[in-house]
Design goal:
Blueprint (H helix, E strand, L loop, with lengths): L1 E5 L10 H15 L3 E6 L13 E5 L9 H16 L3 E5 L7 H7 L3 E4 L12 H17 L2 E4 L2 H11 L4 E2 L21 E4 L8 H9 L7 E4 L7 H13 L3 E5 L4 H9 L4 E3 L8 H8 L4 E4 L2 H7 L4 E3 L3 H12 L2 H18 L2 H16 L1
Parallel strand pairs: 1-2, 1-4, 2-3, 4-5, 5-6, 6-7, 8-9, 8-11, 9-10, 11-12, 12-13
């Protein structure tokens, strides 16, 4: 079987959730004996590891613009047209732009639709409209639709009258670790892009009222930052010297150590389904304080703590978590066991392969 993977930054890339999925799925398909084509952006990928049955094709795109993804998908399709895969696995509703062509060619198109991109605050009105339009198109032209959360699955059924297959994200299994590595230890950890839908401003407000001896670690960066944002953040770091800013970390093992050695991991994501960072934090046995959304509750259930958009209650919950060693260990172990049971990449990769095999029969 020939599988084309489309719509991500490529392989191997270490940027986001889709890229994490591709790093797991492409080798799994290849080891299962399937020729796998991964369409990639040269600037976003490390050197090709040259794995048997994986062919990395670098396609041009207008990087740094809102047209980056769509131009990459369209240019990639030139190769797809000639290599004629048995199935296309697309990530993001933007892949719907090639749906009418895939139908004419008779190539099944399976799209993982991700979250509700048109609800992200970072997009303007036009971009939100375009993403919603692409979701409508994806519902019409996709052979199969994958939802990474049951709540997203329900949303697609109600909004677009389209059934979808529920397959969540996975994570790498980790052993529980004692809070003893001083280099990686933190009282509070943030791992996310610095955007409103990740409760970034609320996190900063929390940091401002913490005792100055509390060590805070921030991993991430701004998306399309303005000069004012950068200046304000620089001033924040100068004022609150207990904050350690690490930028983006592309080394998984390095990042896992921060999750393993924090007393409280702040997960403020509000938009989307099963979040890859949340799943991985669970695998690392982190004590998680997550934004109270249906998506986060679906993933964690009772294996973590939740906060609303209120600084007073957020601070109270944080202090209760931080000062309770018994809860710290118990919740971390509950989260790890739940992640192993529901969100292992081995299990999820098999589900992807099963769905693809069913699609081309």
């Amino acid at each position: 079987m020939r599988i084309a993977i489309l719509g991500t930054r490529g392989f191997p890339s270490f940027y986001g959730g889709f890229e994490t999925a591709v790093r797991e799925l492409a080798p799994f398909f290849a080891k299962s004996g399937h020729q796998t084509f991964v369409y990639s952006r040269k600037a976003s990928c490390r050197d090709n590891p040259h794995i048997e049955n994986i062919e990395v094709i670098y396609s041009p795109s207008l990087n740094g613009t809102s047209l980056g993804t769509i131009t990459h998908i369209m240019s990639s399709f030139v190769h797809i047209f000639f290599c004629k895969p048995d199935v296309i696995l697309g990530f993001n509703v933007t892949c719907a732009v090639v749906g009418p062509i895939t139908r004419m060619l008779g190539v099944p198109l399976v799209i993982n639709v991700d979250g509700l991109e048109w609800r992200r605050q970072k997009w303007g009105r036009t971009a939100k409209f375009v993403y919603f339009f692409l979701a409508v198109l994806a519902a019409k032209v996709s052979t199969r639709v994958i939802s990474d959360s049951e709540n997203i699955q329900e949303y697609w059924q109600k909004t677009f009258n389209r059934n979808s297959d529920f397959i969540p994200y996975g994570g790498q299994e980790c052993e529980m670790a004692a809070l003893e590595d001083k280099d990686y230890f933190s009282d509070l950890l943030y791992v996310a892009r610095f955007v409103p839908e990740n409760s970034f401003d609320l996190f900063l407000d929390l940091v401002k009222i913490l005792p100055k001896h509390f060590k805070v670690i921030m991993v991430g960066s701004f998306s399309n930052s303005t000069k004012k944002q950068l200046m304000d953040f620089s001033e924040f770091l100068s004022t609150y010297t207990n904050v350690v800013y690490l930028g983006h970390i592309s080394n998984d093992e390095e990042l896992f150590k921060y999750w393993k050695n924090t007393r409280v991991y702040f997960h403020g994501h509000t938009v989307g389904g099963t979040n890859p960072a949340l799943v991985q934090a669970m695998h690392c046995g982190a004590n998680i304080l997550a934004r109270n959304t249906v998506y986060n509750r679906e993933v964690m259930d009772n294996a973590g703590h939740y906060f609303n958009d209120n600084l007073t209650s957020l601070a109270q919950i944080f202090y209760n978590m931080h000062g309770n060693d018994s809860t710290l260990k118990t919740k971390g172990e509950q989260a790890r066991k739940r992640a192993i049971r529901l969100y292992s990449w081995d299990r999820i990769s098999n589900e992807y392969l099963r769905l693809i095999e069913e699609t081309i029969k």
